[in-house]
Design a protein that fits this description.
Length: about 550
């Protein structure tokens, strides 16, 4: 790992032609899994030039220390048969309301089946077949502006700071950019910067309790923004709505909590998560490194038990299943997965799918659920962990909500420690949204979500129902930072350095990510057409996944002392 922490992974695994290119398709890291066979099917868009570069990379001297061996290919026929069974379920449309039982949502599995069906030909890659990308492949769209969404916001911030230091109101600023000339920018970029100018000015007025002036600016923001417009307009829409709620709370004392309407689209959370997982690199890049880290820590375990503190679409566990089921040495006897969450219907749906998947590869698999509405409710006796099982814990976007509630985090850690996990892999947002200064917190939140919305714009179509659904969920995080206060202010994301300080109090020590884990994430990222925009950096032992240089997620591996 020497030198990795000071460089981007693109530099560490740099592409350099040295003679004949190697055959990466036939390689897989020792104790790992066949990354191309498993992941290529989930990432439909391929770039021939990228493939050539990746093949050349296998001969690079930086990879000489990696141990490789061939893993027997898995049989895809069983999986295809299971997908066919699932696809026989009549396709249904599920609304976003709550469902009490399976009878109330007979088509719950249909959404998963439809997406799996769309992956059908890709799963054949598990059997070693080469499939060329189709016209339906997910590809990065050509940028329509030269500035990203976050860059537009940063230009607006510089103009705002300059105008604020000169005590000039926002309206003159729009016609007088001072030293920050907007010449050479497109009309769309200029409109975006001026819209962001108004948003920042309104936030400053709100922080000074100048609610009448802020309301006038927000009325303009609302008129010029939209949840279905370009990414700048979408970001401004959600931020301005949250500022409006803050004004109503503080000036009118209504105390009414604004609940953003979920777009009226035929979408389920699990389907949206799967679509996000397939199209946006953040999920796969982080999870493939996380799964690799878990695999490396259970190499000699015959019985493995995974605790997932916040189950989503369940896709990473299919990768773990295949990795463990294909082990030549120390064959796996059983795999158990216990998931923790609040949404019973989603947890059940994921469980049915994973159980079916396990059957296709003849894996002894058990799936258990721990339902809770508060982390204080999580108790040791809710987990059916056998003393002979090797336990690993996976936490993805679960712990950040407990930063303002250290007593809950302490309670959770005490429960986890009792299972003596061999490893705990944590993925969290890499952003400082916890500043006590309101304007500073607002600006940092604006930059973070602007980068996120920019990624969604690049990776998904403008009117994609999954994208609209995901953005509406992200808006809840925006609202928590911008409008909420006290106990309702839950989205207190912090940087990895703060996480290290928190976790050290619980007797935990950060481990190095192996070269194989980093290489897996590097390969997956390069398979995305948007891979050049998704940046991979190291902060100490943690992998930082970003978008155009802006940190988005941090992945770290921990062990209890």
């Amino acid at each position: 790992m020497e030198g990795v922490n000071e460089k981007k992974l693109d530099e560490v695994f740099g592409v350099e032609d040295r003679g004949e290119p190697g055959d990466i398709d036939s390689l897989s890291p020792e104790y790992g899994f066949p990354i191309d066979d498993l992941m290529e099917g989930l990432i439909s868009c391929e770039d021939p030039q990228q493939d050539h570069q990746l093949q050349s990379c296998s001969d690079d001297e930086l990879l000489d220390d990696l141990m490789f061996k061939a893993i027997p290919p898995l049989i895809a026929a069983c999986l295809e048969e299971e997908i066919a069974k699932l696809s026989e379920i009549p396709p249904g449309i599920q609304d976003t309301g709550e469902h009490n039982n399976e009878e109330n949502h007979p088509h719950a599995t249909a959404s998963v089946a439809e997406l799996l069906k769309s992956f059908g030909s890709d799963f054949k890659l598990l059997n070693g077949d080469k499939i060329e990308p189709t016209s339906e492949s997910t590809c990065m769209k050509k940028p329509t502006t030269r500035l990203s969404t976050e860059e537009i916001m940063r230009v607006a911030e510089k103009r705002f700071i300059q105008s604020y230091s000169q005590t000039v109101d926002i309206m003159p600023v729009l016609g007088n950019p001072f030293d920050l000339s907007l010449s050479g920018l497109s009309s769309g970029e200029i409109e975006g910067i001026e819209l962001a100018d108004m948003l920042l000015a309104s936030a400053e007025k709100v922080s000074n309790r100048e609610y009448e002036r802020a309301s006038k600016l927000l009325s303009q923001c609302n008129r010029l923004s939209s949840s279905t417009g370009n990414p700048v307009q979408r970001v401004v829409h959600y931020f301005s709505e949250s500022l409006r709620e803050k004004i109503d709370r503080e000036s009118k004392g209504t105390g009414k909590k604004l609940m953003f309407d979920i777009p009226k689209v035929f979408m389920t959370p699990i389907f949206a998560n799967l679509a996000y997982y397939k199209n946006v690199p953040f999920g796969q890049v982080g999870q493939v490194a996380a799964i690799q880290a878990i695999v490396e820590n259970v190499t000699t375990a015959k019985r493995v038990h995974i605790i997932d503190l916040r189950i989503k679409c369940g896709m990473p566990w299919t990768l773990l299943m295949q990795a463990l089921a294909s082990r030549d040495e120390c064959p796996l006897e059983s795999l158990s997965l216990t998931v923790v969450g609040t949404c019973s219907s989603q947890m059940e749906e994921v469980g049915k799918w994973l159980m079916s998947f396990a059957e296709t590869i003849n894996l002894t698999f058990s799936y258990m659920m721990v339902r809770m509405s508060d982390t204080f409710e999580i108790k040791e006796d809710q987990f059916e962990v056998d003393a002979e099982e090797t336990v690993a814990v996976f936490s993805e976007f679960f712990m950040w909500a407990m930063i303002p509630q250290p007593d809950r985090l302490d309670s959770l850690m005490k429960v986890i420690r009792k299972f003596s996990p061999c490893v705990m892999v944590i993925i969290e947002a890499e952003a400082n949204l916890n500043s006590p200064d309101y304007v500073s917190r607002f600006i940092e939140t604006l930059f973070f979500y602007s980068a996120y919305f920019d990624a969604l714009d690049v990776c998904m179509e403008k009117d994609d129902q999954s994208r609209l659904f995901i953005e509406s969920l992200l808006s809840q995080g925006i609202n928590s930072v911008v409008a909420a206060k006290g106990e309702e202010w839950k989205a207190r994301c912090v940087k990895i350095e703060v996480c290290r300080a928190f976790l050290s109090h619980f007797g935990m020590e950060e481990e190095e990510l192996s070269m194989s884990s980093l290489y897996q994430s590097y390969l997956v990222n390069k398979k995305f057409a948007s891979g050049d925009s998704c940046t991979l950096d190291m902060n100490g032992n943690a992998l930082i996944i970003g978008w155009k240089g802006t940190p988005i997620h941090a992945l770290s591996v921990w062990k209890f002392l």
